[in-house]
Amino acid sequence: MGKNTEQGLGLIECLQTSDLFAGLGDETLARIAALCQTEFYQAGAVIFSEGDPADKLYVLIEGIVTIRIQPAPGGKSFVVQPIEKKAGVFGWSGLADPSIYTASAVCATDARVIAIDGDKLMALLEESPSAGLVVMKRLVAIIGDRLRRTREYLKEDVYLASYHF
Parallel, antiparallel, or unpaired: how do β-strands 89-90 and 56-62 relate? Predict the structure, then answer.
């Protein structure tokens, strides 16, 4: 993995197209961009692991990152959500207590992501309550969507496992 503190128009445009930050004002986006680092990962790399302390939020620039859970300690993990849409947000635990990642993020392909320090982003959002409210409402929607998709995946998996061929 390599890190870079890329800034500029491309970074702000990527943030603007994310479900989490779309529609925020230019000044707020510029302040968020100042907290960002671009990180590069090779296919197969683990960005973070389930149970790790969550200190960052991520936005996909390019590539595919899979969100994986491991239902039983020492058991097999499985993909519950691929993040393949540019500007897709993952690692939301970096913004939510108890700040522990609830899943792992593994690169299915080479990937370039934006990493945002969760504590610094929360401090910025507390300084601007109107932007903070927008971001937190959108975060709740993202979490709800992931929960619904994970539930659908698990229901399908249980159905297939119970089907006798």
Answer: antiparallel
- Bridge-based pairing of strands 104-107 and 65-69 is antiparallel
The predicted structure's pLDDT at residue 157: 63
Token pair, residue 144, equals 């709800």
> DSSP letters of 33-49?
HTTEEEEEE-TT-EEE-
Task: Kindly give, in sequence order, each residue whose CB lies less than 8 Å from that of residue 118, ignoring residues fewer than 6 positions away.
Answer: 54, 55, 56, 57, 94, 95, 99
pLDDT, tens digit (0-9, with 9 covering 90-100), for 20-43: 999 899 999 999 999 999 999 999
Domain ranges of the chain: 2-162
H helices within the chain, ranges in order?
9-17, 26-33, 118-127, 129-162
Kindly give the parts of the chain with pLDDT less than 70.
1-9, 157-165
Cα(37)–Cα(18) distance, rounded to whole angstroms?
16
Summarize pLDDT for 2-17 with one digit per residue, the tens: 444 444 458 999 999 9
Looking at domain 2-162, its CATH superfamily turns out to be Jelly Rolls (2.60.120.10)
Q: Count helices and strands (H / E) in the chain.
A: 4, 9
In the 8-state DSSP scheme, what is residue 164?
Answer: -
With CA atoms as reference, report the closest residue to 103 among 48, 158, 155: 48
